[in-house]
Amino acid sequence: MTPELDFKTPANVADPFPLYRWLREHDPVHWSEGLNGWVVSRYADAVEIFNRPADFSSDRFRKLDARYASQREEVRAVADVLGDWLVFRDPPDHTRLRALLQKSFTPRHLEKSRGRIQSMVDELLDAATEREEFDFIRDFAFPLPASVIAVLLGADASDLDSIKGWSDKLAAYVGGSVLPQDNFQAAREGLDCMVDYFGALLREKQRRPDDGLMSLMLRAEHEGDSLSPEEVVSNSVLLLFAGHETTTNLLGNGVHHLLRNEEALHAVQTGGARVEDAVEELLRYDGPVTATTKIATRDLEWRGAKIERGQMVFPVMSSANRDESVFQRPDELIPDRRPNRHLAFAYGIHFCLGAPLARLEAQLAVETLLRRFPRIAPLEAPPRWKPQLILRGLETLPLRLEG
Ligand code: HEM
Predict the structure, then answer these.
(1) Distance of alpha carbon 393 from alpha carbon 403, whole angstroms
(2) For residues 247-264, b (16+ Cβ closer than 10 Å) or e, as one string?
(3) Handedness of CA 18, 24, 30, 36 (dihedral sign)
(4) Statement: residue 176 has pLDDT above 70
(5) Bond from prior residue into 18 cis (ω within 30 degrees of 0)
(6) pLDDT reported for residue 37
(7) Could you give the CA distance from residue 239 to residue 100 in angstroms, rounded to a whole number?
(8) Confidence at residue 70, expressed as pLDDT on a 0 to 100 scale
């Protein structure tokens, strides 16, 4: 049976996987009127898009997408800041920015954060035991990654609530909301606040450098080149944004599925599956970033589709991750699955810069949660997914914590 080919229906937002399967089988490069772009659902095709940045550009704000050349001031204001983000740049700008930012994201710096992240996990779980009701999203999965990245950047923990508010406003736009409202005004307000906040923080770090990410970015040098203060501010906003809602949703989606899959849960609890492998499988099974947007830089005939220059193309990683030609029993959660070459962090030159950090946070969180609360269970409540297409996550996840 042909499913409803509208990605935005509540049923498809709640469970897009039957639609993805149908597309992989029947229309792997699908023109979506509703999304105004090409939906690419097979693994090999998604990888090919990531491998051809000259044909499938990430620079949707600067070059090609006519919608952003609109006269509306708030649209251009959002595009101006987002257009500086590494994730929305093509080579050679991307190559330069990535080389500089990578200097601040070394395994050595990450290893130094392990103890801090573990303490934050422990503190949040200590506080959780004192609550009458524990919502895993509100009380753990949100504050953990937000605190981690804010603290790594050198922000003050007391500013976290404000930062969350600003970031949420932006998320409604970047996350691909399915609601019909205009998100630009809110996105702009959120962005303006974050740019002001990090601008002030930058001036402080210029006066008193520390070992935080912002100071590292200011000091980073590659082949005689360095980041301008504006680039440090813009990419701090990116790191804050990229580093928190995504990881919140990895924790939320992951724990949601793990607690509903008895066999998988048991394997992780008893050491039958390593937590590192389980986290990879949770990323594959229902990852936090379902797809990304690329722009065709020229007219192309590809996989039977006539793609025009300037059109949007969406490699859907969450569909690729269920592609039966790559993964055996793709609809099952198999916590010790190996190999597991999922695309949850994308692939190629834009492969997620924060993947090692996200992995570390999720491993420490899942391991500690299950060790401290061996009889943890979900409270009966139908899952409510956020009304977003790209950033996929739960609104709430009430749990019963039992030791
Ligand atoms: C589970 C959590 C995460 C997921 C699923 C995720 C996913 C992704 C994906 C799919 C991309 C590629 C986007 C594209 O090609 O259009 C990306 C890029 C990026 N991510 Fe993540 N991310 C996560 C966590 C993080 C964290 C914790 C950070 C930083 C603190 C981060 C920073 C970045 C940056 C800077 C890029 C741009 C890389 C580039 O363009 O070269 N991400 N991420």
Answers:
(1) 27
(2) bbbbbbbbbbbbbebeeb
(3) positive
(4) no
(5) no
(6) 95
(7) 14
(8) 52
Q: How many helices (H) and strands (E) does the chain have?
A: 16, 12
Would you give the distance in Å from CA 354 to the centre of its chain?
9
Cα separation, 256 vs 383, in Å, equals 9
Band of residue 246 on the pLDDT scale cut at 50, 70, 90: very high
The proportion of the chain whose per-residue pLDDT surpasses 70, expressed as a percent, equals 94
DSSP state of 326: T
* Residue 16 predicted with pLDDT over 60: yes
First-residue to last-residue Cα distance in the chain: 46
Q: How far apart are CA 42 and CA 326, in angstroms?
A: 10
What is the dihedral sign for C-alpha 273, 341, 106, 289? negative
Biggest distance spanned by C-alpha atoms of the chain: 64
Best residue among 58, 246, 357 to mutate for probing ligand 1's pocket (most ligand atoms within 8 Å of CB) is 246
Q: Say yes or no to pLDDT of 76 above 90.
A: no
Mean pLDDT along residues 218-229: 90
242: CA distance to ligand 1 center in Å?
6
Please report the atom of ligand 1 found closest to the CA of residue 317: 10
> What tokens does 36 get?
């105004």
Task: Name all domains of the chain by residue range, CATH numbers in brackets.
Answer: 10-400 (1.10.630.10)
Residues with CB under 6 A from ligand 1: 58, 86-87, 98, 149, 238-239, 242-243, 246-247, 250, 287-289, 292, 344-346, 350, 352-354, 357-358
Taking Cα atoms as reference points, which of 57, 127, 124, 126 lies closest to residue 90? 57
- What ranges in 83-226 are assigned the alpha helix state H? 93-102, 107-129, 136, 143-153, 160-174, 184-207, 213-219
Among 3, 396, 12, which Cα is nearest to 176's? 12
pLDDT digits (tens, 9 = 90+) for 85-127: 899 999 999 999 999 999 888 888 888 889 999 999 999 999 9
Distance CA(138)–CA(326), nearest Å, equals 35
What span, in angstroms and rounded, lies between the C-alpha atoms of 88 and 382? 36
